[in-house]
Specification:
heterodimer; A: 648 residues; alpha/beta; Rossmann fold; Ubiquitin-like (UB roll); 5-stranded mixed sheet; 4-stranded mixed sheet; 26 helices; globular; B: 351 residues; alpha+beta; N-terminal domain of TfIIb; binds flavin mononucleotide; binds iron/sulfur cluster; binds FE2/S2 (inorganic) cluster
């Protein structure tokens, strides 16, 4: 029995050809079909190897294998750690394991020692030996322990402020199990919800439970999942499909990626349950091709689930068939929109179509289709396991559960966080996120990416849930949260998002295709100081028309960054238009660099570094910048040791 | 199927379930502008010129794809609608050449018509404008994608009606463009030059090469006739200016509706060709001489008669044509068997 899922001995009868309804439970609490102490022991050992209970002799070095840590070198680190463990002769009681993302990517590569819960950050291969020494003699490697800005050190995982404020229920497995081993998932209780559903529930009961849980789609719109499933169940057609939307195109968002990389089976389990509830036998995962690691792990997860009879015909001897195929996207944001996504799976150009008909009536290949986001689906096994009532204790009345956010921007602790719905922005940004970096002041937070809005200081105490945010012109969106400090220019932010949507517009409808282009041009003129008040009126009119008349969500929502910044930071627009001034000093064309004569010592450093020779001056004499030559690169400002260069 | 009653511009109308706002409005005589809608093609809803206001709805739905609901209150020319429609026209014109003076489509162009109707001029949004080369690398169709408003009708007609799928959308956003695969040109892309795309194009993006400079739409008389080329018998309109045929299009009814093949649509160059035979000719002493029909037919009768007399009717073979109708083919069969006395008769369609 190399794997928890293998047959323990020759008496163990399960195989996909002879499926057994008790299979999953049997792995963790069995064997059921025969009694054998030895087999029980083997299973327990496998489970302990995953759960690493404290008090045992066994330890684990967990290395984060999320995309962030992988790119900062965690793969090499695994090799060095393995080597060091072997050298130290500890290989029989210490294992090195690669998991999914820990969410704390900024501090990666991350190493986590189990069961003690010691947490090391920014670990390099050269640190391997010291870490192994820690396991041998219990001495914590102080220099690798996480420290906050104030210098406090937090050796234990659960004490770190970044984690302390989180409620990890979806992300618990990420960072703890090996995502490429189905047996790890089963060892921590995976696929038990599926068993429960297949053995004890009718499709109607499953839908009822999801409806009672109040689960709302995490893909952006917050549509009640149970209602969607019920509609698809009602559609009296033989063939139906379940699609998992893993296109995650919002710039800066990586919630779904982390779930897929760290816990792919939870998404598969959610899909199988959805299939059972709706009466579908085929699922598709539409995953963006820019996520190679997620794709690799999904492929291995699907293959293993098939191998162990959790996908395919007659799953767990229930008579229910369900299989999943993977379809890679081709890099278009709009393919995250349901109908465009379906066209893309069908092999057509990813262009949205008008609704109705809704996908639950006529979706993929004109068959009733349920499309759910990755995170939505990952919630499903949890709800079945906990029960709707327990689940509802998390989050708010109208937005139950937790939400994963990708925190980015000027924060002390950017990363992936899971918090109950209803936490305030302040708690997330200043608690979990650690506040603004470099002692700067908070200015704005952009929620929901290019479809979302920018909120300001006065919204910090707003609870983060679907309805509170939409009441002020923002959305949870998929969960991207970009925090900006006083150095951000809101006109530039709006321009950035419009540039994104314009590039990603599919071109089907006039307002979005042509309108976003003109909106972008106006914003660009504003950033260059060339816009007039008429331009502002045009921009507002375009926002209205594009929002009201675009065909799909991309166009309908793309004015939001502009509208919200106009609403909360209008004076900044006026400064650009009327005074030709960028208060934050971001818009290059509106910035002037000047040398303060009183501070300049004439060291010549700026002069030497200016790429276009725009600075003149004699040594030891105050220097000056020739405006007509200056390209506003800012090099002089960063070079001057006497703070004599001023940006205005 | 149950009926639905709604009001459009405060007028009540009852229509079958599934009727679009656009159709319901038409029943009340209310015209809503459209670019991308075509009753023969799949529902598209892309151009958005047809948006209307529905009481209680946040968005302005496209009337060509939105079905009426019970009690719906629709306004087709409200403030909000007018602002949207004008803005959409301004957006289209902002990325459109200022070429109505010489454009072949002038007078039959929807963009021109609606710009006039809503008083919209070019110039509201200065900025980038496409500068594609005009594609004229084939004998029949001019493609000026600078004038294209991306209504997608050509794409749909080519795939849904003609079954060729020669063209489709390429690129994204502002750079979206209708193109052949890899922009290789119609000739290389398997186009059969049926001209259906030209027929449905609402603007001057697709025009007929042969008609350039041959006359404005209002100068043309239209003469409905049957295409002379094949037995399908498509109904065509010959477009005539000052007694000369300058083009043809489908009559819009009969077997072919709005569709023709390359011959019926573009194969009328022979009509005024200087080398066209306009009178019967009979060869006498090696020289062709113009004769009257009477004389020519007598000659044929005389010669056939001689062959029949000398060698018997079976010496004559008759080949019927796909270019004539069934009835004419039937008569030809009678002529062969009863008059000429031969059963050697066949039809070109069997070759
Ligand atoms: C332009 C656009 C992009 C979208 N991208 C995504 C995406 O990347 N992932 C996603 O789950 N939903 C995306 N959505 C939302 C989906 O259309 C759909 O609402 C969602 O996948 C439904 O799943 P849910 O009910 O579980 O949220 C996008 C919508 C639009 C309009
Ligand atoms: S709104 Fe934009 S992305 Fe959506 S259909 Fe229209 S052009 Fe395409
Ligand atoms: S901003 Fe750049 S270009 Fe301008 S003076 Fe300084 S170094 Fe030279
Ligand atoms: S396509 Fe229409 S609007 Fe454009 S130039 Fe031709 S006639 Fe004028
Ligand atoms: S001429 Fe006919 S075949 Fe050619 S592109 Fe147009 S519709 Fe298609
Ligand atoms: S070429 Fe004509 S028919 Fe085709 S998309 Fe452009 S405007 Fe529409
Ligand atoms: S030749 Fe073409 S256009 Fe003429 S009748 Fe035949 S199919 Fe129709
Ligand atoms: S005519 Fe209705 S959207 Fe184009």
């Amino acid at each position: 029995m190399i794997n928890l899922m293998d047959n323990c001995c020759s008496k163990c009868t399960h195989s996909p050809a002879t499926p057994c309804s008790n299979y999953v439970l049997c792995r963790t609490a069995g064997p059921f079909c025969h009694t054998d102490k030895g087999c029980e022991e083997k299973r327990k050992n496998h489970i302990n190897n995953v759960r690493v209970p404290s008090g045992g002799n066994y330890q684990q070095i967990i290395v984060c294998g999320g995309t962030g840590c992988t790119s900062s070198g965690s793969a090499r680190l695994v090799d060095s750690l393995k080597e060091a463990v072997n050298e130290a002769g500890l290989s029989d009681r210490v294992a090195v394991k690669r998991t999914g993302c820990h969410g704390f990517c900024e501090n990666g590569p991350i190493v986590h020692i189990k069961p003690e819960g010691i947490f090391y950050t920014r670990v390099k291969p050269a640190d391997a030996r010291d870490i192994v020494n820690h396991l041998a003699d219990g001495q914590i490697v102080e220099r690798l322990v996480y420290r906050d800005a104030a210098g406090n050190s937090y050796p234990h995982f659960h004490e770190i402020p970044f984690y302390a404020g989180q409620t990890l229920i979806l992300l618990t497995n990420c960072g703890h199990i090996d995502p490429e081993q189905i047996s790890d998932y089963v060892a921590v209780g995976g696929y038990r919800s599926l068993v429960k559903v297949l053995q004890h529930m009718t499709p109607e009961q499953v839908i009822e439970e999801i409806q009672l849980s109040g689960l709302r789609g995490r893909g952006g719109a917050g549509f009640p999942t149970g209602k969607k499933w019920a509609a698809a169940r009602r559609a009296a057609r033989e063939i139906k499909y379940i699609i998992c939307n893993a296109d995650e195109g919002d710039p800066g968002a990586f919630m779904d990626r982390s779930l897929l990389e760290g816990d792919p089976h939870s998404v598969l389990e959610g899909m199988i349950i959805a299939g059972f509830a709706v009466g579908s036998h085929q699922g598709y995962i539409y995953c963006r091709a820019e996520y190679p690691l997620a794709i690799k792990r999904l492929k291995s997860a699907i293959q293993q689930a098939r191998q162990w009879g959790l996908l395919g015909k007659n799953i767990l001897n229930s008579g229910f068939d369900f299989d999943i195929d993977l379809k890679e996207g081709a890099g278009a944001f709009v393919c995250g929109e349901g109908t465009a996504l379906q066209a893309s799976i069908e092999g057509l150009r990813g262009m949205p179509r008008v609704k109705p008909p809704r996908s639950t009536e006529k979706g993929l290949w004109e068959k009733p289709t349920v499309l759910n986001n990755v995170e939505t689906l990952a919630n499903v096994p949890l709800i079945i396991q906990m029960g709707a009532e327990e689940y509802r204790k998390l989050g708010t009345e109208q937005s139950p559960g937790t939400k994963i956010f990708a925190l980015s921007g000027s924060l002390v602790n950017p990363g992936l966080v899971e918090v109950p719905m209803g936490k305030t922005l302040r708690e997330i940004i200043f608690g979990t996120g650690g506040g603004i970096r470099d002692g700067k002041a908070f200015k704005a937070v952009q929620l929901g990416g290019p479809s979302g809005g920018c909120l300001a200081e006065q919204h910090l105490d707003l609870p983060v849930d679907f309805d509170s945010l939409s009441s002020v012109g923002a959305t949870i969106g998929s969960g991207g949260m970009v925090v900006m400090d006083e150095g951000a220019c809101m006109v530039d932010v709006a321009r950035f998002f419009l540039a994104f949507t314009q590039k990603e517009s599919c071109g089907k409808c006039t307002p979005c295709r042509e309108g976003t282009k003109r909106m972008l041009e106006i914003l660009e003129r504003m950033c260059r100081g060339e816009a007039t008040l008429d331009d502002l009126a045009d921009l507002e009119r375009l926002c209205r028309v594009v929002k009201n008349t675009s065909l799909c969500g991309l166009g309908q929502a793309c004015p939001n960054p502009v509208l919200s910044t106009l609403q909360y930071f209008r004076e900044e627009y006026m400064a650009h238009i009327v005074e030709k001034r960028c208060p934050a000093g971001v818009c290059a064309e509106l910035v002037r660099y000047r040398i303060d004569e009183n501070l300049c010592r004439g060291c010549g450093l700026c002069l030497k570094n200016c790429p276009v020779q725009a600075i003149r001056g004699q040594r030891k004499q105050p220097h000056a910048i020739d405006d007509s030559r200056c390209i506003k690169c800012g090099v002089c400002l960063s070079k001057c040791k006497f703070k004599a260069v001023v940006r205005s | 199927m149950s009926d639905i009653t709604c009001t459009i511009n405060d007028k009540s109308v009852t229509v079958p379930r599934g009727t679009t706002i656009l159709t319901a409005a038409a029943m009340l005589g209310i015209d809503i502008p459209t670019f991308c809608h075509d009753p023969e093609l799949s529902r598209y809803g892309g151009c958005r010129i047809c948006v209307v206001e529905v009481k209680g709805w946040g968005q302005l739905p496209a009337s060509c794809v939105t079905e009426v609901r019970e009690g719906m209150e629709v306004y087709t020319e409200s403030e909000k609608v007018l602002e949207a429609r004008r803005t959409i026209l301004e957006l289209l014109l902002a990325n459109h050449p200022d070429d109505c003076l010489t454009c072949e489509k002038t007078g039959a162009c929807r963009l021109q018509e609606y710009a006039y109707r809503y008083g919209v001029r070019k110039g509201a949004f200065p900025g980038a404008c496409h500068a594609y080369p005009v594609e004229a690398d084939n004998p029949f169709i001019m493609r000026d994608m600078n004038k294209c408003i991306l209504c997608g009708k050509c794409v749909r007609v080519c795939s849904e009606v003609v079954g060729r799928s020669v063209i489709d959308f390429s690129f994204r956003g502002f750079h979206a463009k209708v193109a052949t695969p890899l922009d290789s040109g119609l000739l290389n892309a398997g186009c059969v030059f049926c001209g259906s795309c030209v027929e449905v194009c609402p603007v001057g993006a697709l025009t007929e090469k042969q008609r350039i400079g041959k006359g404005r739409p209002w100068e043309l008389d239209s003469v409905t006739t049957t295409c002379p080329y094949c037995g399908v018998g498509c109904q065509i309109n010959l477009l005539v200016k000052e007694g000369r045929v300058v083009g043809a299009n489908a009559a819009g009814h009969g077997v072919n509706g709005r569709h023709l093949c390359v011959k019926g649509r573009y194969g009328h160059g022979f009509i005024h060709h200087p080398e066209r035979l306009t009178n019967p000719l009979v060869r006498k002493n090696g020289q062709l001489h113009e004769v009257t029909w009477e004389e020519a037919i007598q000659e044929v009768v005389r010669r056939f008669g001689r062959i029949k007399q000398e060698y018997g009717g079976q010496a004559i073979g008759v080949l019927a044509s796909a270019r004539i109708t069934n009835e004419e083919n039937y008569l030809l069969n009678k002529l062969a068997r009863l008059v000429l006395g031969t059963n050697h008769i066949d039809h070109c369609a069997r070759l």
